[in-house]
Amino acid sequence: MTSAGSAEGTSALGENLLRRAVLGDMLRRQAARLGDKPAVIARSGGGSRQVVSYRDLDRYSNRVAHGLAGLGVERGDRVAVMSRNTAEYVGLYYGILKLGAVFSPLNPSYTPAEVARQVDHSTPRVVIAGPGMSERAARGVAQATADPQMVVMAQAPLPGQISLAEMTEGVPDGMPSAFVEESDLAMVMYTSGTESLPKGVMVTHRAMMISTTPSWVYEGYVEKSDVFLLLAPVYTMAGTGTVTNLISVGATMVMIPHTEAGAVLEAIESERVTNTSQTPTFYHRMIRHPDFSTRDLSSLRQAHVYGGPIPFEVVSSLRERASGVMWATYWGQSELSQLGILGFFGDPSGVPEQDPRWIGKAAPHVEVRVVDSDGADTEVGELLCRSPGVMVGYYRNPESTAAVLHGGWLHTGDLVRIDSEGNLFFYDRLKDMIKTGGMNVSSAEVEEVVRSHPAVAEVAVVGIWHPEWTEAVTAAVVLAEGGRVSEAELIEHCRQRVAGFKTPKRVEFVSELPIDPQGKVRKRRLREILGDHRLPGPGTN
What we know:
Distance between the termini: 54 Å
Helix content: 25-40%
Number of helices: 16
Structural class: alpha/beta
């Protein structure tokens, strides 16, 4: 299925190439236009700096595509990647797309049990593990019923595995002759919802090509001349979407091994970074770092923020160090192919009503409604969206798909207010989703893990407002009769079973949980009991 070269192999393929709009072709075309321009600048903890041009990234991704084909990967097969941000990761992503396969990343902080669960759900043909993750990924694959081929970035694979270098050695670096259509799936991105199990969001090539990526350009969110510091993990929709959009625009992305504030400040100064995107938690830490007052941040053109309201003192502090910087706030969902709503402001006076809950207006490719529980338009209610970027559905989950895609709209599960000019203000989540440090955590998933401890009778998990994390995962626990367990022991119990960002930061022991007449936990009341001092606004529990 994959011969290198002219890609004129069959008349069907020729017709396909004539007018298709798919993501892998964007890199190929940009490589022809931009050649030696840096596509990725990857810095390591040891001070080394890897610069990968558009031409070299294109050729490397071609080798990845040919190498995967040699392992039997075909159009429509899922390929899972478990890695932190690296230049190779970007090449893997585009190589998978060029083959017509489906990119399906694994969270690199997953435990083996979580790896096994996702592998069994997505049934990838190949699992690729990044540096330092080979053993954990292999343990997860061993626990799974599915039996994918393991490829590791390390040079010394375990028995039954092959190395990425071996997979790409001696294969062509020319464009693979692969039939890909814009209606094909490009990715299955796993994102936690209200259920205990993460859901796989199915996104097509078309969704990104004609919705999110153009809107980044239409709104001046990114330009070809930009040097973008990528802090979002590639395995998230925020990360994958940003990589896709930067390559499509022809900008340069900078990657660093971790998001410690001092390292970020140094990278902004030395790489002359023009924009970056992160959560309020990150910016709060950045302005408190000792280097904040000494680093040259004058190159910054924009600071993008998502995942919660940005404190105005943070806005003013960065403006003092980078006088020309504009803030860009945005809201999105994986189900919407990343971007849905965005807005710009220079200082707090530019925020409508000076309300930090403002998330902007609908992006050019998105239509919105705000409705009450009866589906009637209202000022405060659930946000509905329709757009070419709306997902196909949840992978192997028709019930959850039907729950959010009906009546011609995507039902986001988020509670917002809309004003007469179309400004949107985020109030709360109808779903029991906790947003902590920019990551989504399912309260139901954490509750299941806490409840598995024999000393626990009842548990409810909520997000409690926190100045750094936006929300801290907090568990309220009713002990079983005679049950004994400490806060530290319960936290460690969770840490052994779920990723660190899902582990409760606080456990409170209570005599009973507040419930309504139907026996449902009143989580809004629970937040009040636990001392949640977030901004006031209507709730649902």
